[in-house]
C-alpha cells in the first residue's frame, strides 16, 4: 500500500457549507482528495445533497474538482442561492503577459496573449479576473494584465507563459499526429462544430482519458467559445465526469451525426 492510498481524508462538511452560504457565489475549498474518483464522487454528492446533508436541498450548491499541486484532487464549492446572477464557471482565462525571452540578456519586452486554465495550478481555486495595467519601457507603453487569485497564490508571467506554450505545443503535436494517421471523417455534417470536434478528437487521440475541461480550454485557445461553453454546461450536468473524446461525441451528438467518429470511450474520465 502506498502512502497515498493509506492517507485517510476526514472532512467536516458542515463548516464548509456554512462558510459558502455566508458568501453566496464565492468559491470555497472543501478538501484535497488523494483519489480523483473520490473527488468526483464528492462533487456528485454535493450537487445532489446525497449523504451530505450540509448541502441540502439538492441543487443549491455547485462544486467542481481540479488538480492540486500535491498530486491530489481539490474540490471547491459555492452556494448559488441569493447570489446576484452567479456567472457560469469560465472554461479558460485570457491574460496579456510580458515575454522577456528565456536567455539572461536583455531582449526588451513583447506582450503575449495567453489562454490558460481557469484554475490555480497550485490549489485548484479560481484564478482572478484580468485588469489592465500599462507601463512604459524603452520609450513605448505596453498594456498587460494583472490579476489576484482569491486563494492567495500568485501567478508569475513566466509560469503562465510556460503553461500556455506547453499546451499549445501539446495541441499542435496532437493535431499533426491525428492528421497523419486517421482517415478523413465526414466533418461537413457537423456544421458549426466540425472544427471543434476535429480538435477534440485529435487532442484526445494522443492522451486517452484526458479530461473534457482540458478540451474546453483548447477550444477557447482556438476561439471555439460556443463549443467550449456547451461542454462546460454538459460537464456540470455530469458532475465533471467527461473525457475529451466523449466531449467530442457530445458535440457531434448536438450536430446529430455522432456515428462518424468511431467508438466512444467506455469509461469516462
Ligand atoms: Zn491557489
How is this fold's topology laid out?
Layout: H1 3-6, H2 13-22, E1 28-33, H3 36-48, E2 61-67, E3 73-79, E4 93-99, E5 110-116, E6 131-137, E7 140-146, H4 157-181, H5 194-206, H6 212-221, H7 225-237, H8 244-254
Antiparallel strand pairs: 1-3, 2-3, 4-5, 6-7
Helix pairs in contact: 4-5, 5-8, 6-7, 6-8
This protein binds zinc ion.
If you had to describe this structure to a student in words, what would you say it looks like?
The chain has 269 residues and is of the alpha+beta class. 37% of the residues lie in helices and 18% in strands. It contains eight helices and seven strands, in the order ααβαββββββααααα. It has helices at residues 3-6, 13-22, 36-48, 157-181, 194-206, 212-221, 225-237, 244-254, and strands spanning 28-33, 61-67, 73-79, 93-99, 110-116, 131-137, 140-146. A three-stranded antiparallel beta sheet has the order 1-3-2. Helix 5 (194-206) packs antiparallel against helix 8. The structure holds zinc ion. Residues 120, 122-123, 125, 149, 151, 153 line the site of zinc ion.
**H and E order:** HHEHEEEEEEHHHHH
Spatially, the strands of the biggest sheet line up as 1-3-2
Rounded radius of gyration (Å): 20 Å
How many DSSP E strands?
7
Give the overall shape, derived from the CA principal axes: globular
The hetero compounds bound to this protein are:
zinc ion
Mean pLDDT: 87
For the largest beta-sheet, the strand count, sense and barrel status come to: 3 strands, antiparallel
The poorly predicted ranges are: 1-6
Termini gap: 24 Å
Strand content: 15-25%
Helical content (DSSP H or I, runs of 4+): 25-40%
The structure class reads alpha+beta
Domain count: the total is 3
**DSSP helical segment count:** 8
Amino acid at each position: 500500500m502506498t502512502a497515498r492510498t493509506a492517507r485517510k481524508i476526514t472532512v467536516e462538511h458542515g463548516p464548509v457549507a456554512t462558510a459558502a452560504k455566508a458568501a453566496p457565489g464565492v468559491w470555497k475549498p472543501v478538501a484535497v482528495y488523494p483519489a480523483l474518483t473520490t473527488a468526483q464522487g464528492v462533487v456528485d454528492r454535493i450537487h445532489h445533497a446525497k449523504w451530505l446533508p450540509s448541502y441540502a436541498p439538492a441543487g443549491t450548491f455547485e462544486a467542481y474538482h481540479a488538480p492540486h499541486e500535491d498530486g491530489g484532487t481539490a474540490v471547491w464549492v459555492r452556494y448559488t442561492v441569493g447570489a446576484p446572477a452567479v456567472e457560469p464557471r469560465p472554461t479558460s482565462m485570457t491574460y496579456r503577459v510580458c515575454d522577456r525571452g528565456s536567455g539572461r540578456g536583455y531582449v526588451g519586452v513583447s506582450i503575449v496573449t495567453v489562454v490558460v486554465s481557469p484554475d490555480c495550478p497550485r490549489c485548484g481555486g479560481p484564478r482572478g479576473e484580468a485588469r489592465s495595467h500599462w507601463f512604459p519601457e524603452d520609450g513605448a507603453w505596453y498594456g498587460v494584465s494583472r490579476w489576484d487569485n482569491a486563494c492567495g497564490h500568485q501567478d508569475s508571467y513566466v509560469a503562465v507563459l510556460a503553461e500556455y506554450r506547453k499546451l499549445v505545443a501539446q495541441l499542435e503535436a496532437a493535431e499533426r499526429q491525428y492528421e497523419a494517421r486517421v482517415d478523413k471523417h465526414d466533418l461537413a455534417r457537423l456544421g458549426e462544430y466540425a472544427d471543434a470536434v476535429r480538435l477534440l478528437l485529435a487532442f484526445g487521440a494522443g492522451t486517452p482519458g484526458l479530461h473534457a475541461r482540458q478540451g474546453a480550454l483548447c477550444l477557447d485557445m482556438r476561439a471555439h467559445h460556443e463549443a467550449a461553453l456547451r461542454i462546460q454546461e454538459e460537464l456540470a450536468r455530469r458532475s465533471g465526469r467527461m473525457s475529451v473524446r466523449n466531449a467530442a461525441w457530445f458535440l457531434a451528438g448536438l450536430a446529430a451525426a455522432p456515428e462518424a467518429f468511431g467508438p466512444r470511450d467506455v469509461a469516462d474520465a
